[in-house]
Design goal:
- Helix content is 51%, strand content 11%.
- The chain is α/β, with parallel strands linked by helices.
- It has two domains: 166 residues, no CATH class; 318 residues, NAD(P)-binding Rossmann-like Domain (Rossmann fold, 3-Layer(aba) Sandwich).
- It has a seven-stranded parallel beta sheet, with helices on both faces. Strands 10-9-12 form a three-stranded mixed beta sheet.
- Strand 3, helix 7 and strand 4 form a beta-alpha-beta unit.
- Helix 2 runs antiparallel to helix 5.
- The N and C termini lie far apart (89 Å).
């Protein structure tokens, strides 16, 4: 028995290290909803080891009683196989954890090879249970039994708590009519949920009674900012396959404005968007029930740098050789792939989004208050814009309207020139805009990124209006008035715009 105890001690120590280092510190399994099935297997296996440790330490089985520990070892083997399969399904194991699993499998085989002859000899004796003692080994294994059983109970409690967390996401209305009546209860996954648009979208969805899942790099910070009602994950693998997600809104990606578009910067802009698109596709492929709609953020930059100010509907082509256009084409192509799963895809193409607490407006307003509002280049370039409230409105509109699919221009119906926009912004703040900045310094300093400032797209919200969407801020004056004097938002009449029928 001393050899059995030695092999089991090695098995227990390696398993304890694997449990503590990989399961607790690295993977944080007790905090991950997707790991609850793996934790359930761990809890049962630890309970088996707890019973085996205690039994081998103080009990001698003979005759038919040998079937009890032998049966536990057999069940443990099948649980371990199921655990390996569950790990491959739910998470990506690091190399060291895979290596430790190999060591544990070899050690377990050695244990069976050592203990099987002893069990066979004991089975030949008359059936009986006898108390025994192996000295220090018995006491060491008693302590190990208590520790393993306590860990089993801890994991069982974690499984119960994680089950309570995920339960509300598993009970969608049973039929289409009930789903329509319970629209506020539908679950929405938002990527980029802590950004300028994403934060406001999450709050809007919560105010409508929807359930919200947010993908974020820092779940703790996101939960603190968005509130306890939001389920924050840092990996889409943490979302169980049985979760019912009705809509996905993809707003993630590195900011298009900022550093010049060097080759490295271009790779970051493209890669950050295509990687999240790839992860979303993998998630939707494994979900037992596919989302009804995927809304992904592209931009009016899809149209590139037009030669004229002709109106650009959603059917206007992209522009080959223009980075901002090719970036948007790549984003939309990645999203449209998901149509093969029967998912309705909407490619939102917003212009410059105006909002009080983020986006372009605070910097523009600050410059205007200092009298530094400037006409850029000729100033005749069209400046496509939209208030953030209407971006949120179009997103929820696209969720609710099955007819909305494909590209959707997210721009206000009234499109001013850049000079007109600058003057209107300054006027809303009681200032004048008299400065003019030639185009060449911008082109010299920003390179191709200067196109965002010097070249406009006269995009028109054809599909939004045709589908019945009513703009909250159809005119620039309406939007700027609210932004300049936010307290007047509630008192001022809401400006509505709808295409005449």
């Amino acid at each position: 028995m001393h050899l059995v105890f030695a092999v089991m001690s090695f098995q227990a120590l390696v398993g304890a290290f694997d449990n503590f280092w990989h399961h607790e510190l690295e993977a944080r399994l007790p905090q991950r909803i997707s790991a609850r099935h793996e934790l359930r297997l761990h809890s049962v296996r630890e309970a088996i080891y707890g019973l085996l440790f205690a039994g081998l330490a103080w009990v001698q089985w003979q005759g038919w009683w040998v079937m009890l520990p032998a049966g536990l070892l057999l069940v443990e083997m099948f649980i371990t196989i199921a655990d390996f399969l569950e790990e491959d399904r739910s998470r990506k194991l690091p190399p060291l954890e895979r290596a430790l699993h190999t060591v544990l499998a070899v050690s377990y085989g050695l244990l069976l090879g050592v203990i099987a002859p002893l069990f066979w000899q004991a089975a030949q004796r008359p059936s009986a249970l006898m108390l025994t003692s192996y000295g220090l080994w018995s006491w060491l294994f008693s302590v190990a039994s208590i520790g393993v059983l306590a860990w089993s109970v801890r994991n069982a409690i974690a499984v119960r708590e994680l089950g309570r967390m995920v339960a509300p996401l598993m009970d969608p209305p049973a039929n289409p009519q009930a789903r329509a009546q319970a629209i506020g209860r539908l679950t929405v996954l938002v990527t980029g949920g802590t950004g300028f648009i994403g934060t406001a979208l999450v709050q809007k969805l919560l105010s409508e009674g929807r359930r919200v899942i947010v993908l974020t790099r820092d779940p703790l910070q996101a939960r603190a900012a968005l509130g306890p009602m939001v389920w924050c994950v840092d990996r889409l693998d943490d979302i169980p396959s049985e979760t019912h997600i009705d809509a996905v809104v993809n707003l993630a990606g590195a900011g298009i404005l900022g550093a010049p578009w060097t080759q490295a910067r271009r790779q970051l802009l493209v890669g950050s968007r295509l990687e999240i698109a790839r992860q979303l596709r993998q998630l939707m492929q494994r979900l037992e029930r596919k989302p009804e709609v995927l809304i992904t953020a592209s931009a009016v930059g899809y149209y590139g740098v037009p030669d004229n100010d002709d109106a650009l509907t959603e059917s206007a082509p992209a522009q080959s050789g223009c980075f901002q256009s090719e970036l948007c084409v790549a984003i939309e192509a990645a999203a449209l792939q998901n149509q093969d799963m029967g998912i309705r895809v909407v490619c939102l193409r917003p212009g410059i989004v105006l909002g009080k607490d983020g986006g372009a407006y605070p910097a523009l307003a600050f410059a205007a208050r200092l009298g530094l509002g400037a006409t850029l280049g000729t100033g005749r370039q069209v400046m496509p814009w939209i208030h953030r409230d209407d971006v949120l409105g179009l997103i929820t509109h696209a969720m609710a309207e099955p007819a909305v699919q494909g590209p959707l221009n997210a721009v206000a119906p009234q499109m001013p020139s850049q000079q007109g926009f600058t003057r209107a912004l300054a006027a809303s703040l009681g200032r004048n805009a008299w400065l003019r900045l030639p185009a060449w310094p911008l082109r010299l300093g920003l390179g191709e990124m200067s196109q965002l400032l010097l070249c406009g797209q006269n995009a028109v919200p054809t599909r939004a209006l045709a589908s019945g969407y009513r703009f909250t801020h159809a005119s620039l004056e309406s939007a700027l008035a609210v932004l300049a004097h936010p307290t007047s938002e509630q008192a001022a009449p809401v400006a509505l715009y709808q295409e005449a029928s």
